[in-house]
Amino acid sequence: MDTRGYSCEGTDLPDRCKKCSGELTQPTAGRRRQYCSDSCRQLAYVDRRVQRLAAELAGDPTE
Ligand SMILES: [Zn+2]
Questions:
Q1: DSSP state of 31
Q2: How many structural domains are present in the chain?
Q3: Is residue 18 in some structural domain?
Q4: pLDDT tens by residue, 30-43
Q5: 3 assigned to some structural domain
Q6: For residue 32, how far is its CA from the centre of ligand 1 (angstroms)?
């Protein structure tokens, strides 16, 4: 029996929510989800805005 070539890698790995690392249920068709819920997506969006704002405040204003 030769099982070489088999690995855990694959395209069907269960993804994790980018915000809370919770398990995601991917739809069989269509876009893959990145967040487990709308609230996680919203929180991640706010995080990004805050980070960007902090970066702007930390840097020199170019205006
Ligand atoms: Zn989540």
A1: P
A2: 1
A3: yes
A4: 888 899 999 999 99
A5: no
A6: 14
